[in-house]
Amino acid sequence: MKLHPSVFQAIADQAPLRVTVWKVSADGLQLLYLNERARNEAAIEKPGPEVTLSAIFPGRLTQATEESLRETMTKVATDESAAVFRDFEFEEHHEESYWYRTDLVPLGDGMVAILDLGNMVAAQRALSEIVRSSDDAILGKTLEGEIIAWNEGAERIYGYTAAEIIGKSILTLVPSGLESEITGFHERIRLGKKIIRHETRRVRKDGGIIDVTLTISPIRNPEGQIIGASTVARDITFIKKLQAKVRQQDNLERLGSMASGIAHDFNNLLVGILGNTDLVRSSLPGDNLAQRNLDMIARLSVRASELCKQMLNFSGEKLSMTEPVNVSELALDVAQTLRSGLSESIEVKLQLAEGLEAISINKAELKQLLMHLLENAIDAVGSTSGSAITISTGMLAGAQLDQSAMAVPPILFSDNFVSIEVADTGIGMDAEVQAKMFDPYFTTKPAGNGLGLAAVLGVVRNHSGGISVESEPGRGTAIKVYFPTSPSGLEEEESIDWKGSKQVVLVVDEDETVRTTTREILEGAGFQVVTAKNGLQGLDIFRRHAYEIAVVLLDWTMPQKRGEETLRAMKRVRKDVRVVLSSSMALDVKERLAATGGTDVLTKPYRASTLIFRIFRALRR
Predict the structure, then answer these.
(1) Lowest-pLDDT choice from 76-85, 161-170, 458-467, 507-516
(2) Edge-to-edge strand order for the sheet containing 137-142?
């Protein structure tokens, strides 16, 4: 490229790099021009025959470098057809060599412009430091897949040192089954294409599998030929785990909502089945053969209601009263019962902490939770000789709880958590099984309904607790549940004697079967009954007959004015209204009664005797 000197000078005056123009002749080199940056950095006021190459370039020109530079300038001045890029080696005062890149441009008439593009070693050092200290893995490889460069980030992520990995195949880092992925990458690189943020998996030196994103770019030589590829890998294993937990939580919430709705509707049906069974039984003599069939219907209905409770526990619904429970005492009680029925080949170890704070929980639910965990542990160890199951309890400060590593983090923060752990030496679980272990109806057992750990999850969520799981195939499993501590529980209910009466009961429930069955039971017990199918209708009846109605049996979950809203409105009409809340859905009993002024809670499904007892107890208060 050839530029007219005046044009070149106009451009050079504004250039951000050092520019000098030299006259090349048989007599040597003469500086004709230097731009403002060159003048400032070289401390030269104006050009002249006395200015040498050494004065223009910082540092000290070696004799070999000066001869090479002069030779290149002469060649460019003679052959005016093209500019020449050259790297020249200089020597600094502390005797460390460095390189400068220059662009030598022919201007005609023996004139050559030198564009000083800067200290390449300094730039390369800065770039090298960036690559070295990057948290991401940065590596280089040939087109044949041989690793030729390896930074500290790669060592941290993959576990290999540079000495261990350089010279080996990139397949060293590829898990079994993903080898074809590398072939596809190399085909794209040979075509000059990049791979941007590709998600895949890689294997560490210790055999662990990690999730990574890869950005792969072609490496070209000065002639533009593709000679290899650079890869930037980012470890996203933690992010993927968080995403999986979020998806699992979303799925559990959707399943919980569905389970809650199904259980609610089914419990209403069971109210009708149990209630009508009791009505028929009361109309038959005690020695009637049909009594046996009715007893069977009642027992099956109770079993069905237990399944509903498991579904509601999974959905996180609170169904019953809580009380202060010492976890170590309960674990000891369960362990003593368990030992009597276990094979002698299985050892049950106890590591129970003393002086634990009480937790506020339904004792029966906690015992059932522990039994589910123990049943899983027993299945895991089988009949293998020398197997062991360990039950441990303890207490941990909330600040010490690593929630990020938990399968189910606690819903609420607490200063202290009481823990109960069941650990076994059984077959263990892989990551795929652990991801599904709390799903309802998921099981690896040849027999079982898969509701055990789903119910455990429900009890834990029901009481704002958390769960951690440690398991590996062949190395056993440890499941630990955490509950926030509570120094005090709920008061026990008093026992009340009751007799029949003709007082009026208002039954407000959305389900027709419940309304009909409840009316027949209460009328059979001597009450007068008025029914309403929703909160609006019930409130209208109550406003017109507030002081004639002795007790309101109020469904908690209804369309068109829910139970809590209806109760508050009734309290505004008559402050001392007696109410029994009825529901199979979430009721934190103590808090709800304190907030709404309800007098009792009746959990669906209920027997006729329980219904009558609760109505009479409400009348006595």
Answers:
(1) 76-85
(2) 147-150, 137-142, 226-235, 209-220, 195-203
Name 20's bridge partners.
34, 114
Task: Name every residue whose Cβ is closer than 8 Å to that of residue 454 and which is 6 or more positions away in sequence.
Answer: 310, 314, 438, 439, 440, 441
The more confident residue out of 391 and 304 is 391
* pLDDT tens per residue across span 492-536: 333 334 455 688 999 999 888 888 889 988 988 889 999 999 889
> Looking at 65-123, which runs of residues are DSSP E strands?
84-91, 97-108, 111-119
Mark residue 29 as left, alpha or beta (left: phi above 0; alpha: psi -120 to 50; beta: remaining).
beta
| 8-state DSSP, 326 | -
Three-state DSSP class for residue 298: helix
List Cβ<8 Å contacts ≥24 apart for 283-292. none
518/127 Cα distance (integer angstroms): 81
What sign for the dihedral angle of Cα 173, 174, 175, 176?
A: negative
Distance CA 504, CA 577 (A): 12
Angle at the Cα of 149 (from 148 to 154), degrees rounded to 5?
A: 130
List CB contacts of 35: < 8 A, sequence separation 6 or more: 12, 13, 15, 18, 19, 20
Say how far apart CA 9 and CA 225 lie, in whole Å.
Answer: 36
